[in-house]
Amino acid sequence: MSERRRTCVAVIFGGRSVEHDVSIVTGHQIMRAFPEDLYELVPVYISRDGAWFTGDPLLDLDNFANKGLLQLEGVASCLLSPDTRHHGLIVNPLAGRFSKSAVKRIDVAFPALHGTHGEDGSLQGLLELADVPYVGYATLGSALTNDKAMTKMVLRQADVPVLDDFVFSRESWLNQPDQVLEEIQQSLAFPLFIKPATLGSSIGISRADSLPLLRAGIDIAANFDRRIMVEPAIVDGIEINCSVIGFGDEFQASTLEQPLSWDDFLSYEDKYLRGDEGMKSAERIIPAPVNDALTTRLQQLSLRAFQAVDGRGIARIDFLVRPEQDEIYLNEINTMPGSLALYLWREEGLSPSQLVQRLVDLAREAHAEKRRNMYDYQTNLVSVASRRGIKGSKGAKS
User: Fold this and answer.
1) Which of 114, 128, 331, 391 has the lowest CB atom count within 10 Å?
2) Are 99 and 180 in a shared domain?
3) What is the pTM of this model?
4) Domain span including residue 228
């Protein structure tokens, strides 16, 4: 009896994003969770300038401290082919006379990218063209939730409570800063948070308690995005997070957590540089110290939000809560949460290995569902147009 073939999973990490380093850590946490007897792991590293690489040395996180990482023996250039005949990676695509390229077919892609060019629908679109099953949100959901302002518009339609906001363009700020400041103050009251519309990991986010700080915060955010969002700060609230996993009509909400911080919000350093294995794991309360009624309400809102944005795979949904005032505001949807929110699903009895395998299964379910669609619809339109000529085109017959 032949040995069962291992499922080939390409874990894609790094990326042309300010969240590049976070993605490297997430990618290696994911790869470490897979059982080697059932899965063949193919690391795919995207450099800061957008070049793609693969090879066994990329499986070792310690190698990423080496400036000569990409020159290590066994590291090769690659690209993901959008041609459905390849169904995977072309390794050494620019092979010369004394070498040759090769095709590495993959069963499932597991994007571990955060932010721009990875969590925003761009990579998902490439995987759709390649017809490769992939973990996580599809193109629409990824693009939507990557944009904080657009996400709020959809959530309001789904009766999910969100904070008021004021959104403007970098161009408006550069050309009419005083007018922008005046409009913000007419709409919102201090203290305020200033955020790039499409980034995560607290990068480019700042708090303003005064007009000079507001001006400085907008200058910072304008370096990271062409659209900036300003929203009120919840001074006496707490943050409560919930993860959701699922696809189709089957969804599950996790145990809740309360992240702790000595600051007004978790900075990049708080989230990734002060804790164990790249996450601030020691400074959170699980389960969150809220009553059963509030727990149920937050879990239900998480499920509603997940479905409203066409969620798939996994997400961590962050809320700002004022328990005494009975106020809840959804703050952010993370479609590729750092560490995959492993610590929350562990409370539900799912080990890291079980969680990543479940996500691969969901990716395959989503791909099978997509294949139920009809894509080949043949008509005689081309032959008719050829006989009649196309009006307005060069050389068309009258």
Assistant:
1) 391
2) no
3) 0.89
4) 166-232
